[in-house]
Amino acid sequence: MGAFLCFFIGGGVLSIDEKLDEWEEQKLERIRQEKYLKSPEYKDELLFDEGVAIEVKRILLERLTDISGVTDKVARTLLDQFPTVESIKDASVEDLSDIPGIGDSIARAIKARLG
User: According to the per-residue pLDDT averaged within each range, which of 6-20, 21-35, 88-102 is highest?
Assistant: First the structure.
Protein backbone atom coordinates (compact mmCIF):
# COMPACT_ATOMS: atom_id res chain seq x y z
CA MET A 1 0.00 0.00 0.00
CA GLY A 2 1.41 3.43 -0.99
CA ALA A 3 1.94 6.29 1.39
CA PHE A 4 -0.55 9.14 1.35
CA LEU A 5 0.56 12.58 2.48
CA CYS A 6 -1.91 15.20 3.49
CA PHE A 7 -1.95 18.68 5.03
CA PHE A 8 -4.36 19.90 7.64
CA ILE A 9 -5.31 23.42 6.56
CA GLY A 10 -7.84 25.44 8.53
CA GLY A 11 -9.75 22.38 9.64
CA GLY A 12 -9.68 20.82 6.16
CA VAL A 13 -7.43 18.17 4.66
CA LEU A 14 -5.55 18.64 1.39
CA SER A 15 -3.70 15.90 -0.46
CA ILE A 16 -0.12 16.51 -1.52
CA ASP A 17 -1.31 17.03 -5.11
CA GLU A 18 -3.87 19.62 -4.02
CA LYS A 19 -1.25 21.40 -1.90
CA LEU A 20 1.25 21.39 -4.78
CA ASP A 21 -1.43 22.85 -7.07
CA GLU A 22 -2.14 25.54 -4.49
CA TRP A 23 1.58 26.40 -4.15
CA GLU A 24 1.98 26.49 -7.93
CA GLU A 25 -0.99 28.87 -8.26
CA GLN A 26 0.46 31.11 -5.54
CA LYS A 27 3.82 31.13 -7.32
CA LEU A 28 2.18 32.02 -10.64
CA GLU A 29 0.18 34.79 -8.98
CA ARG A 30 3.38 36.26 -7.47
CA ILE A 31 5.04 36.16 -10.90
CA ARG A 32 2.02 37.91 -12.47
CA GLN A 33 2.08 40.58 -9.75
CA GLU A 34 5.82 41.18 -10.13
CA LYS A 35 5.45 41.43 -13.91
CA TYR A 36 2.56 43.88 -13.53
CA LEU A 37 4.47 46.02 -11.02
CA LYS A 38 7.24 46.41 -13.62
CA SER A 39 4.84 47.19 -16.48
CA PRO A 40 4.32 50.63 -18.07
CA GLU A 41 0.59 50.33 -17.35
CA TYR A 42 1.24 50.11 -13.62
CA LYS A 43 3.59 53.11 -13.76
CA ASP A 44 0.91 55.09 -15.62
CA GLU A 45 -1.63 54.16 -12.95
CA LEU A 46 0.78 55.27 -10.21
CA LEU A 47 1.36 58.60 -11.93
CA PHE A 48 -2.38 59.08 -12.34
CA ASP A 49 -3.05 58.14 -8.71
CA GLU A 50 -0.23 60.40 -7.54
CA GLY A 51 -1.56 63.26 -9.67
CA VAL A 52 -5.05 62.81 -8.26
CA ALA A 53 -3.68 62.68 -4.70
CA ILE A 54 -1.69 65.87 -5.28
CA GLU A 55 -4.74 67.63 -6.70
CA VAL A 56 -6.94 66.49 -3.79
CA LYS A 57 -4.35 67.74 -1.30
CA ARG A 58 -4.11 71.08 -3.15
CA ILE A 59 -7.88 71.52 -3.02
CA LEU A 60 -7.97 70.61 0.67
CA LEU A 61 -5.17 73.10 1.39
CA GLU A 62 -7.19 75.79 -0.40
CA ARG A 63 -10.31 74.93 1.61
CA LEU A 64 -8.36 75.10 4.85
CA THR A 65 -6.54 78.36 4.07
CA ASP A 66 -9.89 79.97 3.20
CA ILE A 67 -10.71 79.68 6.91
CA SER A 68 -9.80 82.80 8.84
CA GLY A 69 -6.67 82.22 10.92
CA VAL A 70 -5.46 79.16 9.00
CA THR A 71 -2.19 79.93 7.24
CA ASP A 72 -0.58 77.71 4.63
CA LYS A 73 1.90 76.48 7.23
CA VAL A 74 -0.85 75.64 9.72
CA ALA A 75 -2.87 73.87 7.01
CA ARG A 76 0.15 71.77 5.99
CA THR A 77 0.88 70.90 9.63
CA LEU A 78 -2.77 69.91 10.06
CA LEU A 79 -2.61 67.68 6.96
CA ASP A 80 0.52 66.00 8.27
CA GLN A 81 -1.52 64.82 11.27
CA PHE A 82 -4.89 64.41 9.54
CA PRO A 83 -4.26 63.72 5.83
CA THR A 84 -7.89 63.34 4.68
CA VAL A 85 -11.15 65.22 5.06
CA GLU A 86 -12.54 62.14 6.82
CA SER A 87 -9.73 62.11 9.37
CA ILE A 88 -10.28 65.81 10.08
CA LYS A 89 -14.03 65.23 10.43
CA ASP A 90 -13.38 62.33 12.81
CA ALA A 91 -10.99 64.39 14.95
CA SER A 92 -12.33 66.19 17.97
CA VAL A 93 -11.93 69.93 18.50
CA GLU A 94 -9.37 69.04 21.17
CA ASP A 95 -7.40 66.87 18.72
CA LEU A 96 -7.28 69.71 16.20
CA SER A 97 -6.40 72.33 18.78
CA ASP A 98 -3.37 70.25 19.82
CA ILE A 99 -1.77 71.22 16.51
CA PRO A 100 0.53 74.25 16.78
CA GLY A 101 -1.22 77.37 15.46
CA ILE A 102 -4.73 76.01 15.94
CA GLY A 103 -6.66 77.11 18.98
CA ASP A 104 -10.19 76.16 19.99
CA SER A 105 -11.87 78.80 17.83
CA ILE A 106 -9.93 77.85 14.70
CA ALA A 107 -10.51 74.15 15.41
CA ARG A 108 -14.26 74.82 15.63
CA ALA A 109 -14.14 76.81 12.40
CA ILE A 110 -12.35 73.93 10.65
CA LYS A 111 -14.93 71.44 11.90
CA ALA A 112 -17.78 73.73 10.80
CA ARG A 113 -16.30 74.26 7.33
CA LEU A 114 -15.46 70.62 6.61
CA GLY A 115 -18.61 69.17 7.94
Answer: 88-102
Give residue limits of the domains in the chain.
Answer: 14-114
Instruction: Please state, rounded to an integer, the average pLDDT across all residues of the chain.
Output: 82
pTM of the model as a whole: 0.56
Q: How far apart are CA 114 and CA 23, in angstroms?
A: 49
pLDDT beyond 60 at 44: yes
Q: Please give the CATH architecture assigned to the domain spanning 14-114.
A: Orthogonal Bundle (1.10)
d(CA 93, CA 82): 13
Beta-carbon-side half-sphere exposure of residue 20 (alpha carbons within 13 Å): 4
DSSP bridge pairs for 7: 14
Phi, psi of 49 (to 5 degrees): -60, -40
Q: Please give the Cα distance from 81 to 77 (Å, whole number).
A: 7
